[in-house]
């Protein structure tokens, strides 16, 4: 029984060995197979004949931008891996094919349905909410193939969907600036008769006035002297005709109005020029800058050691620049960047630390020197302590000596009397 069990164990160990041998050979086998397939395919596969074949095709990831579109409107997706300036002139030897990621079927090239591929671009007309999803574009020629995916989200146009489908744009208070109607290039081939209509909160801005100017022949709306009330949702629309049908192509914009950012001359209010620290301990020196009403966003603040950047001078990170903090107290703005020593060593006492601050108005610098603090040292504690110990030892010794003597005297007496 035991023998049988051992045999089984041995056998299974043996089979494990042979499996692992196979596994070790697997990459080689795969490589040979791959080379064979590549060799054969180089001679036989014509890209146009196998647009759906995804083998040997490199996936280059998902495009960073998601397309948010409105239901009922035309949607055009371009292959993200093809540069915009090549859109109209992709090499005739390159085929661009599209499929939705949950479907193996390629989108057809002819206009049979709402969805087709034309000049390498995916057209959906009109788009429905269920078209939302991930689309994959495969670009292939005789020697090369790659894929990228694009995400499309189609929303019903409602007030509630505006935050999702709007492009954020920013203008500065009390200045004049443009809103731009984005991503229209597919629908406005002839720029001169481009007719864009602009809406604010669904009200048509049909008259040019001292506030809004619809700049003809461009996709821009000029807003004069931007005020806080100008913030909010805008939409712009062009009409597009396809096979006798008129479609709206609209884009939504959320205008945010920022306060004008003004700069002031920064003042370094900390550190004090000499910082006391004890060797071996952790030390933080904050460099604190006062800006008053000035903006923090354009002010740079950094530390250097012996005119070298901190991260270069201390590659091990013993001394490092901490997180930048921006805060306001009583409506006055401050920035702080700490320099952190973990720990302080003797070399720091000879190093020239400087805090720099710079904006467009000013450039300033402050030296900081680390000095050894004379407060606490073991020597100072140990000296009196050792004295006390010495005295104690002395007392004990003398005490014991006395006891010993009297003990001796006692035994003498015992001896004498006992005799
Ligand atoms: C398709 O995309 C969805 C969401 O983007 C993802 O969860 C899913 O794994 C993808 N499917 C395939 C086959 O790539
Ligand atoms: C195929 O495409 C790649 C990458 O775009 C390019 O470098 C190569 O020259 C193309 N080959 C042919 C035969 O067009
Ligand atoms: C801009 O608008 C503000 C009110 O919003 C007004 O006080 C100011 O005079 C205007 N400036 C110009 C140059 O029109
Ligand atoms: C296009 O949009 C405008 C404004 O939203 C609307 O008045 C018009 O009816 C729309 N046209 C079509 C064809 O949907
Ligand atoms: C900075 O320079 C001083 C003297 O030149 C030197 O003793 C010190 O080690 C230097 N510190 C660093 C971090 O290089």
Structure description:
With 419 residues, this protein is α+β, with helices and mostly antiparallel strands. It folds into 3 domains: 102 residues, Immunoglobulins (Immunoglobulin-like, Sandwich); 100 residues, Immunoglobulins (Immunoglobulin-like), CATH 2.60.40; 106 residues, Immunoglobulins (Immunoglobulin-like), CATH 2.60.40.10. It has 4 helices and 25 strands. The N and C termini lie far apart (86 Å). The site of one 2-acetamido-2-deoxy-beta-D-glucopyranose has 6 residues, from loops. One 2-acetamido-2-deoxy-beta-D-glucopyranose binds next to loops.
Which features characterize this protein?
419 residues; Immunoglobulin-like; 3 domains; five-stranded mixed sheet; 4 helices; disordered C terminus; binds 2-acetamido-2-deoxy-beta-D-glucopyranose
Given helix and strand content, the structural type is: alpha+beta
The percentage helix is: 10-25%
Overall pLDDT, averaged? 79
Number of strands: 25
Please write the CATH class name of the largest domain.
Answer: Mainly Beta
Q: What proportion of the residues form beta strands (DSSP E)? A: 35-45%
Keywords: Cell membrane, Disulfide bond, Glycoprotein, Immunoglobulin domain, Membrane, Receptor, Repeat, Secreted, Signal, Transmembrane, Transmembrane helix
Protein name: Interleukin-1 receptor type 2
Membrane topology: Single-pass type I membrane protein
Subcellular location: Cell membrane; Membrane; Secreted
Give a short synopsis of this structure.
By secondary structure, the protein is α+β, with helices and mostly antiparallel strands.
